[in-house]
Amino acid sequence: xxxxxxxxxxxxxxxxxxxxxxxxxxxxxxxxxxxxxxxxxxxxxxxxxxxxxxxxxxxxxxxxxxxxxxxxxxxxxxxxxxxxxxxxxxxxxxxxxxxxxxxxxxxxxxxxxxxxxxxxxxxxxxxxxxxxxxxxxxxxxxxxxxxxxxxxxxxxxxxxxxxxxxxxxxxxxxxxxxxxxxxxxxxxxxxxxxxxxxxxxxxxxxxxxxxxxxxxxxxxxxxxxxx
Length: 227
Ligand code: DX5
Ligand code: ZN
Hints:
It is built from 8 helices and 8 strands; from the N terminus they run βαβαβαβαββαβαβαα. The chain has helices at residues 28-37, 60-68, 84-93, 108-117, 162-173, 190-196, 205-208, 213-226, and strands at residues 15-18, 43-48, 74-79, 97-101, 121-126, 144-148, 179-182, 200-203. Helix 2 (60-68) packs parallel to helix 3 and helix 6 (190-196) runs parallel beside helix 8 (213-226). D-xylitol-5-phosphate binds at residues 19, 21-22, 44, 46, 77, 150, 152-157, 182-185, 202-206.
């Protein structure tokens, strides 16, 4: 779509991606300004369709607005069935990454090719119950993996500890692959995911429940770095 592709943080680089799902939508622009000043690396944008997940959230018109008021990378997480027909619209609206749920893609290989053809970074997200084997034949088309550490659909859920082993398994098998984690990432859980090998941390309630976003993001980064 004419714009340069973003750089995805490498496994040794830590990035925090606040999930806008927990933002105050009455003042989304101000929230984004605050997150930018607070040192957010990516803005995580959760799209829900009421079919893949039992909830609805935000979509293309909100993304277009957001694109006009931020230069931060927008990390679009598509929790939707049959994402292929909407990839072009999300890319045009300003997505920097497009992450699809592996479980929602019949032709995952083709979907990832399509994402790259649209000029976006491609992520593959795995639900907590989804094994990592399916990554093997699409790994060359992936810019990163997104390990869900809750069942997708809602903010504010508890981190599922069984997923920590999955992160470690992916790190061992793919040392160069950036690993993003999403769900229940807060001060008391981020070290576990970081120690297992994750390096991009989505945090919704973990950031937005804090009075000072800058302090919260700095603390999350420190905990991830110290492990
Ligand atoms: C869950 C979404 C997450 C969610 C994270 O379905 O994909 O991005 O907003 O929220 P917390 O960090 O509160 O678990
Ligand atoms: Zn998400």
